């Protein structure tokens, strides 16, 4: 929105936009047309863009789209069992999901990244044998690198479980045990915490 009254959806991010946004550092300026010049950050990348007939500049709007995509891919999470995979391979919301128990809700292994799995493909056959293919088809948070990049806290006397990302500061996920209520929201600067391995 440019006037905080009329809102429109962002266009989907392309791989090129995400790759360019990953190279940029610093906070957002707040103007969609503000451009960041690659020649100052990565001269080699700027030369390739010049050779391809493109400007070595990324607009703030494109950087925002790419950053949202990065955050969703890295820390967009769902509780185990909230979605199911059918034998034909399609994924659907689980209508029978009644929430995690409090004991399960306190474990990182009970939460999955809601994106295409990466680590799951690297598991051995023995590890895969203990998984339920209908619910365990996504990557678990317990294997995230660096280890300790999630903070698990209980709020309201254990009535709400809150997970906070230490990699993308400002990302907060909540789940009310024994209910279908869960979700996440991001209030941050759009900067990845690259110092996290040194802070743990």
TrEMBL record:
InterPro entries documented for this protein: RSP9
GO cellular component terms listed in the entry, alphabetical order:
axoneme; kinocilium
Q: Name one GO biological process term.
A: cilium movement involved in cell motility
Q: Does the keyword Coiled coil apply?
A: no
Kindly indicate whether the keyword S-adenosyl-L-methionine belongs to this entry.
no
Primary subcellular site in the record, as a coarse category: other
Compartments (UniProt record): Cell projection, Kinocilium; Cytoplasm, Cytoskeleton, Flagellum axoneme
Q: Which UniProt keywords apply?
A: Cell projection, Cilium, Cilium biogenesis/degradation, Cytoplasm, Cytoskeleton, Flagellum
Q: To which protein family does this belong?
A: Belongs to the flagellar radial spoke RSP9 family.
Write the protein's name: Radial spoke head protein 9 homolog
State the organism named in the record. Answer: Cephalopterus ornatus (Amazonian umbrellabird)
